[in-house]
């Protein structure tokens, strides 16, 4: 069975890179939004008889999900026997337990919705914290690509004498890989989250690292407050203005401006979400997992 890719609007560049590497076609889909806000889409190239992968990064997900679901349903309706999802950023991974009585556990519900529409999924560095493996919540085959080595190589090539800094214990998993790849030392701090935009970071005395270039690394920058608070604490100890390096450039609201205002040397992200700070191209990491599953 031949395969083909489809790009949800906004995912064209990533999809084109992936299609070229896979030696496959990107099907043309025309999207239209009716005056009442409803979505209309039309496959200009037929998906009949082809294994389809829809590429859709899922930051700001709520507005993307109906177009995504309709795209998958239309592909199937027009005769695609298999439809998969390539989601460079996977949403709804962080509400992985009931933090407050009465809350919904969306990290459990969202996978069931995706499994109604898709036969398989590939993503990059999903936020695995209390969920340790996507198979615990996704009832379809999934593959995960890891961007830490790519980030580590980028740091090695661009930053002198880096000191890798993970803002919290969750970040230890990628901070260690980044540090090893970059040939740099790493420290992991302790963070407590009190609210969406309210975190405190405990930081030991770092005077032994004077002369190093701190590089804050994280999987997601959302409100930016984990980065901002860590930058402030590092700077208060007289260390050099840090670099901030992240996989997923969610950058909600004024996050980027707040991070820059806190005093950084630079900001670099992977291209799992399109953003001007994208410096680390990870599209190639998706080739083998997509080839396995289409
Ligand atoms: O502090 P913001 O940017 O809102 O959120 C991102 C942080 O929250 C955690 O879940 C992520 O791993 C990251 O450390």
TrEMBL record:
Coiled coil: none annotated. This is Ribose-phosphate pyrophosphokinase. Keywords: Nucleotide biosynthesis. Gene3D superfamilies: 3.40.50.2020. It comes from Albidovulum sediminicola. Belongs to the ribose-phosphate pyrophosphokinase family. Signal peptide: none annotated. Residues 5-115 form the Ribose-phosphate pyrophosphokinase N-terminal domain. InterPro entries: Pribosyltran_N, PRTase-like, PRTase_dom, Rib-P_diPkinase. Residues 135-269 form the Phosphoribosyltransferase domain. It holds the Pfam family Pribosyltran.
């Amino acid at each position: 069975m031949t395969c083909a890719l489809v790009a949800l609007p906004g995912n064209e560049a990533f999809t084109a890179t992936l299609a070229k590497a896979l030696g496959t076609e990107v099907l043309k889909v025309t999207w239209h939004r009716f005056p009442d806000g409803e979505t209309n889409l039309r496959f200009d190239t037929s998906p009949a008889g082809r294994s389809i992968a829809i590429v859709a990064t899922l930051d700001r997900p709520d507005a993307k999900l109906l177009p995504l679901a309709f795209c998958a349903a239309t592909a199937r309706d027009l005769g695609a026997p298999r439809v998969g999802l390539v989601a460079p950023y996977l949403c709804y991974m962080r509400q992985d337990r009931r933090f407050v009585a009465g809350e919904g556990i969306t990290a459990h519900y969202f996978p069931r919705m995706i499994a109604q529409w898709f036969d398989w999924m590939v993503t990059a560095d999903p936020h695995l914290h209390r969920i340790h493996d996507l198979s615990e919540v996704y009832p379809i085959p999934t593959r995960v690509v890891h961007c830490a080595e790519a980030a580590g190589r980028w740091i090695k090539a661009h930053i002198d004498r880096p000191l890798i800094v993970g803002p919290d214990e969750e970040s230890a998993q990628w901070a260690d890989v980044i540090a090893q790849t970059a040939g740099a030392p790493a420290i992991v701090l302790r963070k407590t989250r009190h609210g969406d935009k309210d975190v405190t970071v405990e930081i030991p005395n770092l005077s032994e690292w004077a002369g190093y270039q701190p590089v804050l690394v994280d999987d997601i920058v959302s409100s930016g407050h984990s980065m901002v608070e860590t930058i402030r604490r590092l700077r208060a100890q007289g260390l050099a203005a840090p670099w901030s390096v992240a996989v997923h450039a969610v950058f909600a609201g004024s996050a980027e401006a707040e991070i820059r205002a806190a005093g950084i040397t630079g900001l670099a992200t992977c291209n799992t979400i399109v953003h001007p700070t994208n410096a680390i191209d990870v599209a190639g990491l998706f080739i083998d997992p997509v080839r396995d599953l289409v």
